[in-house]
UniProtKB/TrEMBL annotation:
CDD domains per the UniProt record, alphabetical: DAP_dppA_1
Organism: Streptomyces siamensis
InterPro entries attached to this UniProt entry: DppA_N, Peptidase_M55, Peptidase_M55_sf
Lineage: Bacteria, Bacillati, Actinomycetota, Actinomycetes, Kitasatosporales
Name the record gives this protein: M55 family metallopeptidase
Entry-linked Pfam families: Peptidase_M55
Superkingdom: Bacteria
Gene3D superfamilies associated with the record: Dipeptide transport protein
Amino acid sequence: MRIYISADMEGITGLVDADDVQPAGRDYERGRLMMAEDVNAAVRGALAAGATDIVVNDAHGPMRNLLPEALHPAVRLVRGKPKQMGMLEGLTPAHHAMIGVGYHSRAGVLGVLSHSFMGHEIEDMWLDGRPVGEIGLAHATAAAIGVPLVALTGDDTACDEATAWDDSVTTVAVKYARDRFAARLRPVDEAREAIEKAVTTALSAHAVRAESTPPSGPRAPRELTVRWQSASVAATLQGIPGVTATDSRTVRAEGRLPSLYRLFGVWMRVAASLTNQPPYC
């Protein structure tokens, strides 16, 4: 059984502030070790369920947060950037299931370190008219590749967002949001044990379901709409074929996933070149 893990950082056990998750932050070095241990808990759970190959993609910020020497020896790590598929780099139809570790809720939700991909530069996003963030877009893209998201960890708002997209996803809340930079934390050992057990249970249940699930047919085109903080970003993106504006700060495009996901990655690189906005401000 081949398992893919996409590891973000804002939803990691114990982390609540930008100083915990940004390289310049005073608690970042501690945060990256906490991130590794949440990933390791998911890896142990996957191995207990029979995983024979585990790829972990460092999906947060600079994508160089996970220290290879801090990870379980079974992990094959994808690290660094740029990556054409960003948070889903390395995910292929050969994987049997995907796990999201350390995810967070979308922009506009009062969750711990909530945002959508680019701090406050992205004000909102919609997939086929439905509000979406990193969780929903990852879920939809993985499904289009043919890989189900079976388990996700993060704060309670991230877990709620995941189950709203797909109530078959097993979630583990490692903290409970009190505000955007405050949470009630689960004890560390308890949270890691919960991650490990949940991943084992989710993968075991998925293996049973997969035996009776017919393969899906061709995927229909999807519409992705993004409202930016900067009108300059929206204006520049209209130079990309297929991108149209709905107002001075909002652009949209149609396409099939995962190609549409790759296109969105280009949008973010354009936005990063035009702005210098720190996240979480």
